[in-house]
Amino acid sequence: MTVRDVAIEAYKEALPALAASLVGGLVAGVVLGGMRAELRAVPGLLVLVPALLATRGNVYGSLGARIATALHQGLIEPRVTGGDERLRAAATAALANGVLTSTFAAVVAFFLLTFLGSRVAPLSILVGVAIVAGLLSGIVLTVVVVSVVFAGYRRGRNPDTIVGPVVTTTGDVFGVLFLLIAVRTVLAVAGVF
Amino acid sequence: MPTEWTVRAITRAMLPVLLVLTLVELGSGLVLGSFEAQLFRYPSLLVLVPVTIGTAGNLGSVLAARLSTSFHLGTLSFSPRDDELAGNAVATLALAVTVFPVIGAGAWVATLLAIGAPLGAIGRWLLVGDLLAGLLAVLASVGGIALLVGFAFAQEAAAIRRFDHALADAAEAALASNGAGSGSTAGADREERPVLVVPARHAAGVAAILRERDVDATAQRVEIGDSPASVS
């Protein structure tokens, strides 16, 4: 194959997935643009945004890849019975990794900004937002990733090619959406006490 | 090595990588935080944040996934003239040139429809600015991936060299014991020489190492089905 053939094939293969995640990214952006009030109310939150969004992609992308490989190897059945130990372990580990990494990001961001002398919200607020957002988006993303990969596999699609676009699109949208919900919840709870 | 399917094993395999990546992401978050005021003033810039980060990441991972597949299949060589490598790099740049102006325009429309914020001059610069930012990001990721692939090749080459040395040691040992034996069978009309059959990718390296050690060695290609007599 010449350089031209390789380039055309790679271009055609990647464009649909990119277009899908582009739409998801724009929706996430609109939500982010609409939460300027929350971003102002919680200084330091903007610094956390790339880390939180990337964590969703990394954790649930790897969950999807793991499930896709297991389907290929026949390790798990494409059925959500709730009793499958491997599936349960993978989902639990993903959720734990997501929440732990988000919390770590919040703690490091707090100390980094304090060290730099920037204005930053109390540690409890940042950690609270990270945990609530990590947990909520994690539950939704686990359900979405597992059901989309299983449904695609049962219809004869290669799960490897579905995982990437599904995770980037839903990860961005739900990541920002649950960030907004988490900030509002944590601020409301903090206002009560 | 495959990870066991337990919560503990998966977490142990994933968490260290995730934590390191988080530190890198916080670095980009600090950059974002440094122009917070402009982002709040022009919401269309804020709209661009997730989609620009996401698309640059997607382009990089598409390239990385394709290259690593070709690498595993053995159809890739690490040379700038390699068709597979050049073709994928060209495709990634072409995708960036296609997608980033669409993102700029999309963010512009989305801001107008959803937030109804005034665009001002910044809106007109979005398309150009996002194209430039996207291209820079993609160039950086193409460079980073090239480095990674190069590193993988260097690792592979080092492993082959280590195995070459092990094979050469074995050949030398065989020759030494053979030499001791041939002393007692002096007068035989035919000198016996040890033959070491190695995979083709090791042959040249092993022969070179043996010659360095002043062992009279030659590399010879043996085809499957050759009779022992045909190998002189």
UniProtKB/TrEMBL annotation, chain A:
<dbReference type="GO" id="GO:0016020">
    <property type="term" value="C:membrane"/>
</dbReference>
<protein>
    <submittedName>
        <fullName>Magnesium transporter</fullName>
    </submittedName>
</protein>
<dbReference type="GO" id="GO:0006811">
    <property type="term" value="P:monoatomic ion transport"/>
</dbReference>
<feature type="transmembrane region" description="Helical">
    <location>
        <begin position="125"/>
        <end position="153"/>
    </location>
</feature>
<keyword id="KW-0813">Transport</keyword>
<feature type="transmembrane region" description="Helical">
    <location>
        <begin position="89"/>
        <end position="113"/>
    </location>
</feature>
<feature type="transmembrane region" description="Helical">
    <location>
        <begin position="14"/>
        <end position="33"/>
    </location>
</feature>
<keyword id="KW-1133">Transmembrane helix</keyword>
<dbReference type="InterPro" id="IPR036739">
    <property type="entry name" value="SLC41_membr_dom_sf"/>
</dbReference>
<feature type="domain" description="SLC41A/MgtE integral membrane">
    <location>
        <begin position="49"/>
        <end position="181"/>
    </location>
</feature>
<keyword id="KW-0812">Transmembrane</keyword>
<dbReference type="InterPro" id="IPR045349">
    <property type="entry name" value="SLC41A1-3"/>
</dbReference>
<keyword id="KW-0472">Membrane</keyword>
<keyword id="KW-0406">Ion transport</keyword>
<keyword id="KW-0460">Magnesium</keyword>
<feature type="transmembrane region" description="Helical">
    <location>
        <begin position="173"/>
        <end position="192"/>
    </location>
</feature>
<comment type="similarity">
    <text>Belongs to the SLC41A transporter family.</text>
</comment>
<dbReference type="Pfam" id="PF01769">
    <property type="entry name" value="MgtE"/>
</dbReference>
<dbReference type="InterPro" id="IPR006667">
    <property type="entry name" value="SLC41_membr_dom"/>
</dbReference>
